[in-house]
Design goal:
Helices cover 49% and strands 4% of the residues. The protein has 169 residues and is mainly alpha-helical. The longest helix is centred in the middle third of the chain and has 16 residues, at 70-85. It is globular.
Length: 169
């Protein structure tokens, strides 16, 4: 979404005038720059960008990132894995192990999750085909059930639950 907005602004498809900064991870940059070759982009090393930035602003962003609720970081981690699993060919990640390593670093170091990366529900690990991939932590079934409020499965259509707005129709 942000890439789309930045692209529209750069192409002049908008009344917005100004500059935009899109900070990319190393594994993303070559693919993005290749796909956006028609845009007037300038590749600025992060060190150069940060050198001209107010140190307090950097500290404020770091503090805000590290104050994110754990469940927000866990959701972002899962979304990160899901997105890049389907886009591995576009970026310079060759194996699922490479992706999990990058995702773990991002969650633990950049987002300040801690020293151990978030665990994923077993069902999610299966759907993402990450079972047995080094670095993937699988959440126990008890934790998954607790996260859902202690309820078992169901809750869906076709007689799978019964809670919700249309339960007795």
């Amino acid at each position: 979404q942000y890439t789309h907005r930045l692209g529209r602004t750069a192409r002049g498809d908008s009344e917005v005038v100004g500059n935009g900064h899109l900070i990319l991870a190393d594994f993303e940059s070559s693919a993005f720059l290749r796909e956006a070759k028609d845009l007037p982009l300038e590749n600025v090393p992060i060190a150069t960008l940060l050198a001209g930035t107010d140190k307090q602003a950097i500290a404020d962003v770091d503090d805000a990132t590290r104050a994110l609720p754990k469940n927000t970081v866990e959701s972002a981690y899962q979304a990160f894995l899901g997105y890049y699993l389907s886009n591995m060919r576009r970026v310079s990640l060759r194996t699922k192990e490479d992706l999990v390593y990058v995702a773990n670093q991002w969650a633990c170091e950049t987002l300040g999750y801690g020293t151990i990366p978030p665990a994923l529900p077993g069902k999610t690990v299966g759907k993402m085909q990450l079972k047995g991939v080094e670095g993937v932590r699988v959440e126990s079934a008890a934790v998954t059930a607790e996260r859902r409020g202690g309820r078992g499965g169901g809750g869906g259509a076709r007689g799978g639950g019964g809670e919700g707005r249309y339960a007795n129709r």
